[in-house]
């Protein structure tokens, strides 16, 4: 079913509404992943420990045995990145803006240039910057060493509604236009990010072939085949607590697919995803195109001004 449905889903993307309306029998991704060896991330240890339940793994800290853990290069989980009061105000401000339906039971608010990932085409479109009420979040990135010089060129609010079975299927964020650091700020609700090793090795899928052009500039080097073997047959679970900051970079960003399972969304969840340019659009061959977008990305507008 390739047509766009009233719920916003199309192709293999589904929500509970279209699954019921169109009698779509979608296999459970969670059941498939639970056949693998489960490891969960402890944000305090910055290590992975055996187990599917992220809360149980977190609760076991500080009694973890590091000898029984695995590293996960390229992940940052910073709890309490925004305060509870800031989160409440942010949600009030986001809900004052229009939401658009999206796939898999989600809604979104997207601010950024128009992109065509297949044809690798970039257009400024109607991009005029970001909501002023969210400016403090981008400013706070400056306090995180990993995010030094991060310039947001796309900001997307995402709402996950459990009544619609909201989720996002396993994927690697596009590598042609979006840069290394994939940033998420959780504004409302707890959830889990689920990672599994990307093994298809299709050079053009996700535009992964372009990573070779800027591999030497990555903040964390990619893992060798021998190193990646340690993650084969495993599923990795990363807690995403309310008000936290999550950053994927290096191996976690490029060598693993990430997903949000519908079973891990048991209350309304809202997050804001932030993307930066790849080096080609900052100081490479496509810098001129990138400069036009980067100029707009310094702008913040208010509802009154619009």
UniProtKB/TrEMBL annotation:
InterPro entries, per the entry: AlkB-like_sf (IPR037151), ALKBH4 (IPR032857)
GO biological process, one term: demethylation
Cofactor(s) named in the record: Fe(2+)
UniProt entry tagged with the keyword Oxidoreductase: yes
SUPFAM superfamilies reported for this sequence: Clavaminate synthase-like
UniProt superkingdom: Eukaryota
Record-level Gene Ontology MF annotations: demethylase activity; oxidoreductase activity
Keyword Oxidoreductase: yes
EC annotation from Swiss-Prot or TrEMBL: 1.14.11.-
Annotated keywords: Oxidoreductase
Protein's UniProt name: Uncharacterized protein, isoform B
Organism of provenance: Drosophila virilis
Annotated gene: Dvir\GJ13536
